[in-house]
Amino acid sequence: MTPKALVFDVDGTLAETEETHRAAFNQTFREAGLDWRWSVEDYGRLLGTTGGKERMKRHRDAMGAPEPDDAAIAALHRRKTEIYAEFIRSGNIALRPGVAELVASAGRAGVRVAVATTTNRPNVEGLCRACWGRGADEVFEVIAAGDEVARKKPAPDVFTLALHRMRLGPGDCIALEDSRNGVLSARAAGLEVVVTPSIYTAGDDFPGAARIVTDLTPANLPGCLRFDGRDA
Asked: Whole-angstrom Cα distance, residue 50 to residue 214?
């Protein structure tokens, strides 16, 4: 059955952005005079916690340090978002294989496209401008971001928000995810999920996923995502 909408995660699903995020965090820490330096291994562990502010709090608490306090972490995260946007604008990012083609073929077939992400709206905007040369609202009909909901993934809130804004039920949509927390979030909201593991999530398990594929190129797409030939 052809879905009425596709709901995409962003980081790791649309593009391999996590190394760019890690670099932005580390530059933020240097600027602030913090002696924090997140290695690939550190960041891989921290990705089990969704949300940038939440990752910084987890790191602080694991160190048993009282500082930076939550207000300072919020300020650090704002600066990190600025640095990430600068990195993205430099052009050192690309969509994962098949993503642009899938979004385009969905549009031709009249299948709506949305985003449900833990990241914030400015990061989605920066990625869309860098990779599509258009604003996020010109690429996706609906964007539900992590800073708009009470609970981040693996809670279902962000998918529930996306469904509400599209006025669709979970059975009308397929979620595209790359992480265990993303799959748990989408499944808790009632969506079927197709997973394309990213660099940081290749070793995850994905309970409840309908399909796991290497990427979204046409040869790897399950039948429910093959829209060419039945375009509107």
From this structure: 23
Catalytic residues: 9, 11
CA atoms of 100 and 117, how far apart (whole Å): 18
What pLDDT was estimated at residue 228? Answer: 78
Burial grade of 59 (CB within 10 A; 0-12, 13-18, 19 or more) = buried
pLDDT at 231: 40
Residue 224 to residues 142, 155, 174, 210, Cα–Cα distance (Å): 21, 25, 9, 11
User: Sign of the C-alpha dihedral, residues 151, 40, 37, 78?
Assistant: negative
Q: Which residue has the tokens 């949300």?
A: 51
How far is 134 from 53, CA to CA, in rounded Å? 28
Residues near 101 by beta carbon (within 8 Å), at least 6 away in sequence: 216, 217, 218
Question: Which residue type occupies 87?
Answer: F
Strands (E), the chain: 5-8, 112-116, 142-144, 173-177, 192-195, 211-212
* Run of H or E residues at 43: helix 40-46
pLDDT along the chain (232 residues), means of 10: 94 94 96 96 92 94 91 96 91 92 96 96 93 96 95 97 98 97 97 96 94 96 85 39
| pLDDT for 92 | 77
